[in-house]
Specification:
Length: 602
Amino acid sequence: MTRLPPLLQPWSAWLALLPADLAAPLGDLLLRLHPVLGPLRRHAASRPVEPAGVGDIVRRGSYERLLLSEWAYADSAPDEFLRRAANGELLFTGPEPAHCDEPLRSIALFDAGPAQLGEPRLAHIALFILLARRAELAGAKFRWGILQHPGTLHGELGKEGVLHLLGARSYAVANAATLEAWQAILDDAPHDTWLVGAPDTPCPPAVHARVQVRRSLLADQLDVVLSQHRSDRAVTLPLPPPQTGVRLLRNPFETVSKAHVTQAAKGTHSLKRAPLFGNRGDRVAVGMVDGDVFIYHIPDSVFAQPGKPRQTGKRQYADNVIAAGLFRKSYCTIHMRDGALHFSDFPGPYFDNAPNLPVPPSDEFHIVPGRRYHAPVFHLLHRTGGSISERVLVLDQKGRLACWTRTGVATARQPSRTTFDVFANNVIGAAPVPHGLLFAVSLEDRTDAYLLHASATTASHLYPILHHGDRILFGELKTWRGSGSVYALRQAGGDWLVGDRNGAEHVMVPDGASVLGCARLTQKEPPGLVVLAPNRLGIELLAAKGRSTLVRSTEPIAQASFDATHNRLAWLGQKSGALTVRAIGAEKPLLQTVPRRGPDAG
């Protein structure tokens, strides 16, 4: 580890456990909190004791132990006696410390409830280290517990103690029963008993010092107030960058590894089509030059290693695919074979390698097979009682949302019937949401958003967008609740509107730029368009009031896609053919895959 500054040497044993880039921000918290704690000192006995002898002459104590010379002042010079008493000059016999000093111990309780989740727990880590080191310097035993778990005091320190503390998150709030249970345990506790929590966290009566931690609403900082000996001391703790804070709370002792680079088993990434995200956000599919498709696992964080890529083995009918999607772990396709449609690998009982189905008439369904364009496909599955309903929907090139439905009994291997119908016309965009499908229908003077739930036979009208358009993209699909989500609508002439049900604003898109989706970096910021720059060397978020750079690439980006559900970007490099997946607010990629051979536009 990098040599610590002299001021951090007292906690070197703790900070040495962390990577160098995390030791610095945690050390800053320690330096700011340390002055307000003070040392741990012995306290006189709280109960009367019979002294075994005189161990010292002290200026404080019971008047039963007042020196005889002081009583002489009281008899002969009462005014002088009162003056000495007021100024703390009276002298008392001090009993032997071995008989009157309480055992030197320190106890800390940490509130792990909902009010302290997130950034306040950074202060918990720092206070845990400071209180443990403070007890060590005084030769005291340090024990700690979780407020929501009365009766249990832990002795783990070091790495195990910090991980135990961070893993004790709880959605429970301390109540009267919790405080009563703690009070029964803390009745005989030392005078050095601490509570770390929110300002409104209930406090057991036996606690002698408390630390209130609150996330500031006006700045990126924590407001900390220490209450002890009937006085308050306040300190502010500037928060580290979000990525650093997340690492401290999730994996404080793990070193960030370089972006994991793996190689495709064989073949070369095709640059014809953009990477395809799965419906769960943990998979991405990339086409290969030979027509096959590779499925890559996307790790949850930069610390995790991705699994091995999986080859689908579908190259034999790559030229005949009309629609494709990635559901769960399966690359699902609809392709034409021998004048019929074949459904393959859908995650349900009836469309997994389904028998050939007739091709609908061209006035009801229009798709041209080929490697360059695959229509978006959606899958809905609903089980109720003993029956199953499975639907596959495809948005064709004429704006028709075609739907194949198969229903049956759970105990039967074959469906009772298969139907086809055009579920909706004039559809300008669709996107999967949990347990349903979100789509928009645009007529001559307005556009309306609809939600089709897996259990419903008809779509529910969400709200009118009131602007006619020819293409729509939905954002924040994971939590789509109407006003909480955004959309981007392209109007006639190429102008874009970005907004939600409460209104929209115009966003100018440069000539040559490609719109990938819509999103917002934080809930406080306005939504914008996720755009591949005209020079193809970066990806930006364009909003009505400004722009933010999401990606800077050292080579031109051949293809890019955006997962609105999980706010992730994926792109293919023009020169290297490398696949990169990254969250829009992160600096390091979650996945970076380089094929064995160079890129090929085929």
